[in-house]
Write a structure and sequence with these properties.
- The complex is a heterodimer of chains A (357) and B (165).
- Chain A contains 9 helices and 8 strands.
- Chain A is mainly alpha-helical and 357 residues long.
- A 3-stranded antiparallel beta sheet of chain A has the order 4-3-8, with no helix packed on it. Chain A has a 3-stranded antiparallel beta sheet with strand order 5-6-7, with no helix packed on it.
- In chain A, strand 3 and strand 4 form a beta hairpin.
- In chain A, 36% of the residues are buried.
- By secondary structure, chain B is mainly α.
- Chain B is 93% helix and 0% strand.
- Chain B is rod-shaped.
- Chain B contains 2 helices and no strands.
- Chain B has one domain.
- The chains are: A mainly alpha (357), B mainly alpha (165).
Chain lengths: 357, 165
């Protein structure tokens, strides 16, 4: 019970940390809070990591900008050079237009073009950080096993917890969904699960180094879905391809108009696409809702202390609820992604023709 | 919506970092853990089987030992019975022998006693004879002091001899 209370207090503290951040983010000259700017500013990407505003001072971690210009080659500098729309070495962050919020280059002819941009942005930084963390955690756990023989007692504490977690994913999701040849795909599916889960959970921590919307970014989920796409299609067996191009349907559905093959072929791409969108939308929505609920406090400031006070309580309570829910969602989305990937891989591995109803 | 357009830079980094994470973990991370857990599971299964087998053997040994024990018990009873019978027989025999021996000794004693008695009787008879001869001598000497008596005696003896022949 004491621990629960401790967690609650900590959570509220985090929430207030988050609110402090939100207050610094976007307020127009009338003191009205631009919720949309706060929310989209957070769930989008940025060239620097804005932590909070302390008084009038923004606390920002500058991140490296790495760009390749068509004319002048590679450039690498810290994002603090571009702060406040300043121009550095011909680059600046566009404030409006097609490339708003991105680094653009002013060419010699005067027009603004987008250079090849592989900057370490906020999401990239969080991504790299979480990747290092994940590798450290899993290799740390694996080290425990390397030093022991099978007749050693089962691990306790964190290693024991991770073993339970890993074997849960391995046995309940991968083994049962992929089928006989699960061994070949288990490392990828386990990596995908823990990668997504860790990024989801890190995204829920409101302050640095957490809080970045990594799995709620479509580029991240796109790569994950691509990996599943290749795992399904590169390792699919003959039956799988036959099922796509010559499925078990009445012949008039296949010749002369290849209706079902087209549908099946379409399905090959929609499956990973659905994976990509599901993870992206869920995580993005979670971040948005929590931010919107937190913003409620600042929106109601102009409505007087009574409403503002009530709404603050409501907002904090809802935020606690949403954080709990998001913790669940963080797990569920990792679970669903891994499970569906396993099912798709398993279907592409099925030896005998599945009976179609 | 810029949210739905994947950023190329992020795409590159994601591809790189996820790829590296995947390669590292697929090589040094998860297989080690999974393999170890599975081999531990096998080990536990094996141990259970071995324990079951040992249990089975133990119970077999137990029943075997019980059988041996029962057999030994039976043997013991049999030996005891036999021993008792032998003892009874030996005692019986000894008694018989003792009785016979006693009988024999008794008879011997009787015989000896009889012989000694005979001897004693003979001895007595001899002494009686000697004594009677002595007495007769004394009587005769007394009776034959006189000449005529001696003569009468001789005559009578001669008569007797003559009459006898």
């Amino acid at each position: 019970m004491d621990r629960l209370r401790y967690v609650m207090v900590l959570l509220v503290c985090f929430l207030f940390a988050g609110t402090a951040k939100a207050s610094g983010a976007a307020a127009d000259e009338n003191g009205n809070v631009d919720v949309k700017a706060i929310v989209f500013g957070h769930i989008g990407d940025a060239y620097e990591w804005h932590i909070t505003k302390w008084g009038d001072k923004d606390i920002i971690i500058p991140l490296p900008v790495i760009v390749r210009s068509q004319e002048t080659g590679w450039h690498a500098f810290l994002s603090s050079r571009l702060e406040g729309g300043e121009e550095y070495e011909g680059f600046r962050i566009a404030s409006e237009g097609e490339h708003a919020g991105k680094v653009v280059e002013r060419t010699s002819s005067g027009e603004e073009v987008r250079p090849l941009d592989i900057s370490i942005t906020k999401v990239t930084f969080a991504l790299l950080l979480n990747s290092v963390l994940l590798v450290a955690i899993i290799l740390g756990v694996a080290r425990w096993y390397k030093k022991r023989t099978p007749d050693a007692a089962a691990p306790k504490g964190f290693v024991g917890f991770m073993e339970m977690f890993i074997m849960m994913v391995h046995d309940d999701i991968i083994k049962s969904c992929v089928g006989e040849k699960y061994r070949r795909f288990a490392p990828y599916l386990l990596t995908a699960f823990f990668f997504i889960f860790l990024n989801n959970v890190m995204g829920l921590i409101p302050i640095f180094p957490g809080g970045a919307n990594v799995t709620g970014n479509i580029a991240v989920t796109l790569v994950l879905a691509l990996f599943t796409f290749f795992a399904v299609n590169l390792f699919g067996n003959k039956e799988y391809w036959k099922d796509i191009f010559w499925p078990h349907v009445p012949n008039w559905l296949k010749v002369p108009v290849p209706l079902m093959p087209v549908v099946e072929l379409f399905g090959v791409f929609t499956k990973p696409f659905a994976l990509m969108i599901r993870l992206f939308a869920n995580m993005m929505a979670g971040h948005s809702v929590i931010l919107a609920l937190t913003s409620l406090i600042f929106i109601t400031v102009s409505m007087g202390p009574a409403i503002n006070g009530t709404m603050t309580v409501v907002s904090v309570l809802f935020c606690i609820f949403m954080n709990m829910l998001e913790l669940l969602v963080a797990f569920i989305q990792a679970y669903v992604f891994t499970m569906l990937s396993s099912v798709f891989i398993g279907l592409a591995q099925a030896e005998h023709e599945p009976k179609k109803a | 919506m810029s949210l739905l357009v994947p950023d190329s830079g992020l795409l590159f980094w994601m591809l790189l970092s996820f790829g590296v994470v995947f390669i590292i973990l697929a090589k040094y991370g998860f297989p080690v853990i999974v393999k170890m857990v599975e081999s531990r599971k096998d080990y536990i299964d094996q141990s259970l089987d071995a324990a079951k087998e040992a249990n089975r053997q133990l119970s077999a040994i137990k029943s075997e030992s019980e059988a041996i024990l029962a057999k030994a018990h039976e043997e013991q009873t049999r030996i005891l019975n036999e021993a008792a019978a032998t003892r009874d027989r030996i005692i019986q025999e000894a008694k018989e022998q003792a009785r016979m021996e006693g009988q024999k000794q008794l008879e011997e004693a009787k015989r000896q006693i009889a012989a000694e008695k005979e001897e004693a009787i003979r001895d007595i008879r001899r002494q009686v004879a000697v004594l009677s001869v002595d007495i007769a001598e004394k009587v005769l000497r007394k009776n034959l002091d006189k000449k005529q008596e001696q003569m009468a005696m001789i005559d009578r003896l001669l008569d007797e001899v003559v009459s006898q022949s």
